[in-house]
Automatic annotation (TrEMBL):
The gene is lysA. It catalyses: meso-2,6-diaminopimelate + H(+) = L-lysine + CO2. It comes from the Bacteria. Specifically catalyzes the decarboxylation of meso-diaminopimelate (meso-DAP) to L-lysine. InterPro entries: Ala_racemase/Decarboxylase_C, DAP_deCOOHase_LysA, De-COase2_C, De-COase2_CS, De-COase2_N, Orn/DAP/Arg_de-COase, PLP-binding_barrel. Pyridoxal 5'-phosphate binds at residues 239, 275-278, 375. It comes from Roseovarius halotolerans. Homodimer. GO terms for biological process: lysine biosynthetic process via diaminopimelate. NCBIfam families: lysA (TIGR01048). One of its GO terms (molecular function) is diaminopimelate decarboxylase activity. The modification N6-(pyridoxal phosphate)lysine is found at residue 60. Its cofactor is pyridoxal 5'-phosphate. This is Diaminopimelate decarboxylase.
Length: 421
């Protein structure tokens, strides 16, 4: 459920007509709903009620300061994957003890930054990283709390580019070698082993792969405890999928996911962490765009928008489906026709949808891409020197620009000219 609904024939974000925001801000722009963000965060928090837990929002999904502050106020921790994300989380007021640091290639500089600034734990992904973190911690006279990310060799049954739990993926330590690597970690004085971490992929629409992974983690917890490690925290990653189409069967709900976690791991007495990103932000955001031209092609009609692949890369990159809806509600029973929905960027990959059935649309009409809140704005670029699109946050009847569109001068002045030119 989200808070982007038609009211009186016009698409609203909570209590604000989307067309009103477009008139004030210009198109294209991202628009987020506070109520949806909050609701989705709380669903996870409630799903783990009764067990000691922390929901660490995977801020790579959408990391605007206003979004982070909204979630932090609800008690969210953060999952960060770079020094930049760590700095963003701290700037939004998230204390170090609520930040977990994931990622396969943390640099020594990033380790130092997080150790000095405060960190709940590093999720370590390899032996060389473990050795580096030990050295950095010792040089600062500190001990770094760690989990080791294990790779359970489970097929997440999702798009190949976002599956991370198979042995051929670059992530984690093969679970078969975990006992050996934990023994090495325990011998390093700059590290304190606190638990186990696992994350098998994103946009999972079936609970079975999670079950397989979590059962393996439960078994490993027993083995590591028998080896003398104090395993007291389990980080279970993110990955629960969202419905991108309204016709598709809905993915499992956070409550069902929470129940699975309790069933497979609840008996271990560990503190549990989860790192949802997409389900918190995905359906809490839309990308609003204006139709520039309607162009008749050979046997097809192109709907040319002012948004492009640089603003929303997911269709080009993952063949992702995003629902596209007119901002003015179509008349009941309005006839639909197939359109190829494209942007102005100079490549054929700049295609959002082919033969998409849509009600009649004309130049100047506004459309909204639904489910664009996660991995939308954060993956955008200024390719073709198209300014990064602004972000807007709605809260009931109010809205605010939370990232402004840069001017052409701002973009150009980021470049500097060497003195020989
Ligand atoms: N934890 C770790 C260690 C991750 O790598 C990820 C996502 C998450 C949590 C959050 O997963 P989520 O709950 O959002 O599924 N750009 C792609 C998705 C990349 C996901 C990367 N890792 C897309 O647009 O589909």
């Amino acid at each position: 459920m989200d808070h982007f609904l038609y009211r009186g024939g016009a698409l609203h974000a909570e209590d604000v007509p989307v067309a009103e925001i477009a008139a004030a801000v210009g198109t294209p722009f991202y628009c987020y709903s506070t109520a949806t963000l909050s609701r989705h965060f709380r669903l996870f928090d409630e799903a783990l009620e009764g067990v000691d837990h922390l929901v660490c929002y995977a801020m790579k999904a959408a990391s605007n300061q206003a979004i982070l502050k909204t979630l932090a106020a609800l008690g969210a921790g953060m999952d960060v994957v770079s020094g930049g994300e760590y700095a963003r989380a701290r700037a939004a007021g998230v204390p170090g003890e609520r930040i977990v640091f994931s990622g396969v290639g943390k640099t020594r500089e990033e380790m130092r930054q997080a150790l000095e600034g405060g960190i709940r734990q590093f999720n370590v992904e390899s032996e060389p990283e473990m050795v580096a973190l030990n050295e950095v911690a010792l040089s600062l006279g500190l001990r770094a709390p760690i989990t080791l990310r294990v790779n359970p060799d489970v097929d997440a049954k999702t798009h190949a580019k976002i599956a991370t739990g198979k042995s051929e993926n670059k992530f984690g330590i093969p679970i078969a070698r975990a006992r050996e690597v934990y023994a090495e970690a325990a011998a390093l004085k700059g590290l304190e082993v606190v638990g186990i971490d696992v994350h098998i992929g994103s946009q999972l629409t079936d609970l079975e792969p999670f079950r397989q992974a979590y059962e393996k983690v439960a078994e490993l917890t027993g083995m590591l405890r028998a080896d003398g490690h104090d395993i007291r925290r389990l980080d279970l990653g993110g990955g629960l999928g969202i419905p991108y189409t309204r016709s598709n069967e809905a993915p499992p709900l956070p409550t069902e996911y929470g129940q699975l976690i309790k069933d497979t791991l609840g008996h271990l007495g560990c503190e549990l962490e989860i790192e949802p990103g997409r389900l918190v932000a995905g359906n809490a955001g839309i990308l609003v765009s204006e139709v520039i031209y309607l162009k008749s092609g050979e046997g097809r009609d192109f709907l040319i928008l002012d948004a492009a692949m640089n603003d929303l890369i997911r269709p080009a990159m993952y063949d992702a489906y995003h629902d596209i809806v007119p901002v003015r509600e179509p008349a009941p029973g309005a006839e639909q026709a197939p359109y190829d929905v494209v942007g102005p960027v100079c490549e054929s990959g700049d295609t959002f949808a082919r033969a998409r059935m849509l009600p009649p649309l004309a130049a100047g009409d506004l459309v909204a891409f639904r489910s664009a809140g996660a991995y939308g704005a954060v993956m955008s670029s200024e390719y073709n020197t198209r300014p990064l699109v602004p972000e807007v946050l709605v809260h009931e009847h109010q809205f605010a620009v939370i990232r402004a569109r840069p001017s052409f001068d701002e973009i150009i002045n980021r470049d500097t000219i060497p003195e020989w030119l």
